[in-house]
Amino acid sequence: MDETLLMLPGPTSVAPRVLKAMSDNIVNHRSAIFGEIFTETTELMSEVFKTQNQSYLLTGSGSSAMEAGLVNIVKPKEKILAIVGGKFGQRFTNIATSFGIEAKELNVEWGTAVTPDEVKVALEEDEDIKAVTIVHNETSTGVTAPVEEIGKVVANHDALYVVDTVSSLGGDRVDVDKFGIDVCVAGSQKCLAAPPGMAAITLSDDAWKAVDNVDSNTYYLDMKKYRKAGAGTPPETPYTPSVSLIYALFEALKIIKEEGLEARVVRHETAAEASRNAVKALGLELFPEESVSSATVTAVKMPEGVTDADLRGTMRNKYKVELAGGQDHLKGNIFRIGHMGNITYKELAITFSALGMTLKNLGFDIDMGAGVSAVNESYL
Amino acid sequence: MDETLLMLPGPTSVAPRVLKAMSDNIVNHRSAIFGEIFTETTELMSEVFKTQNQSYLLTGSGSSAMEAGLVNIVKPKEKILAIVGGKFGQRFTNIATSFGIEAKELNVEWGTAVTPDEVKVALEEDEDIKAVTIVHNETSTGVTAPVEEIGKVVANHDALYVVDTVSSLGGDRVDVDKFGIDVCVAGSQKCLAAPPGMAAITLSDDAWKAVDNVDSNTYYLDMKKYRKAGAGTPPETPYTPSVSLIYALFEALKIIKEEGLEARVVRHETAAEASRNAVKALGLELFPEESVSSATVTAVKMPEGVTDADLRGTMRNKYKVELAGGQDHLKGNIFRIGHMGNITYKELAITFSALGMTLKNLGFDIDMGAGVSAVNESYL
What we know:
- 2 copies of one chain form a homodimer.
- Chain A is α/β, with parallel strands linked by helices and 380 residues long.
- In chain A, 42% of the residues lie in helices and 16% in strands.
- Chain A has helices spanning 16-22, 32-49, 62-71, 87-98, 116-125, 147-155, 205-213, 223-230, 243-259, 261-281, 308-317, 345-361, 370-379; strands spanning 5-6, 55-59, 79-84, 102-107, 129-135, 137-138, 143-144, 160-164, 183-187, 198-203, 297-301, 321-322, 324-325, 334-338.
- In chain A, strand 6 (137-138) and strand 7 (143-144) form a beta hairpin.
- In chain A, helix 12 (345-361) packs antiparallel against helix 13.
- Chains A and B meet through helix 1, helix 3, helix 4 and helix 9 of A and helix 1, helix 3, helix 4 and helix 9 of B.
């Protein structure tokens, strides 16, 4: 299999011990033995979400949890406020529209973060907002939104607070109960460092009340069914889950618990700071405003005259380091370095060593070692 | 991990070589290297479906493919004919109802199979049927429906033919193009013998025409998005797929190709015949009519005075063989022996050895070895 170093905003490299757990024998998903694994996994998920509420595992991508998180609490024709500053913020609008839900967008320039005041104004302008959707860590732009502060604003209104922490949970500070988050969704393959294919969701009491008022307009992602199956003995999922991926997620969550959530966030912050410093040391420019840049992915402007194929192609083919490109209108204009999951100075040393050589290959007159030096400075 | 022998109608035991493939390094799901694996996997899926059409992989349970297969081709308020002879046939009705689609049920007694004539009459009675849904192999009752013959009936009407082969594909004869199937759905964890968590779907040209006429009322399972992403270079999924489970499915499909589809079906038929003979040799009664009994799961009436906990509990706890119970109103009234995937005389020898001892434990005056003898007779 491919030995390329993944420096993507998901999927991320998975620890051998997680891969090993994943390859254990399949068991009956409706057995007591699986019920125990399932219960412990969902309990660890709630610990990572920092919530007293139950967590649910969905067999699906992070987007399945975004859909579940929205369409179970809002009826068709009702209105949401969708905060859009990138591709994943936009996704909530797209999901809403598919289900006949009206999405009023609060657009912020890609690369900047929404402010609590802007949310306050938008909510005061419109009494009919049933839910506010926001992406905590917008991987498409490398921006972190102030979800804690916005939570305080939303708490003053009769709207539910739906937060996508797909690419922040386990890598940046998420505190579902403290932030007043009503629906929080996450994916397995980002900072949790498990393989892709599982999503997690947790709902507050207020969110569950909304669920009970919405006629199910979905079947596979109907949260009423997940609640019912999860309350059984043993707790189950309504449909056959990814048994192997739950083994993997369980192991990945045990690793997080061993490391400690706060230590893990600090490790991500250090990696982010090191990455930003290394980018600048190599003469490149950050895409987002640095004050709101992400703890888990660093977005970088593509240097003038360099194509995505030049830069990412050389990184991948010559140096075996996989970076992410830009999405939508940012395609070719930025590239993105994911530093999620099991990231230490080692992966950054490799990445910025490769990026230095790549830029030199492309004819840039730079100090090739400056990136790695900046990484070292940040870690020393 | 648990060493219990799984004799379930899914999930089934997975070959070590599949588990090994699954634990390979995660790669970028939008890379050329993954595109190759993905393409080969979907091509093998189409070979197993026996269709010239493209197959699509969904990160989800088999039920996600049932939903995708129905709600992408039928609009809310339109009508389907749902053939219901068990829990999974019923599921199509439930999905339809969740999406505001009218489901006219053709109910057949659980344990019997619908006849082509009954379908003919139902279709002639109602011109407005947009699609007919049927479960090829109803695991809840152990019955196989005559999907080929019903396909000929549906072909005479202006209705699409939606067939759930979740628990038959790779274990019983499925020939999508020859049977005139418009939408065929499957799951990874049944006769394909891959871990649970992936589903597959294929659509005919007529089905795709219907898709183009239906406004998407789903997001995660919107087949238009799968078609678009699948047509890209490299072919992709719209959302991050279960990379590891696709490795596993790819390996499982290679095993199927090595064995040969027809040889594999014959192997399942032999296991089914051996199981039925062994059940009868132990003095037990089959639940379904034997003429329509399944090639992949044998449903057995619970002996008088024996509880599910007695029988399946003893099998599981004392003899480490896991059987399935009855579902819905059949709970406690039947038990089910899955013989799907990598099943040979060996697993059946263990299972009927255990069942003989279990019945003896429960006070039955039987020839304990009669089950295994019947298995041997069938295989000799």
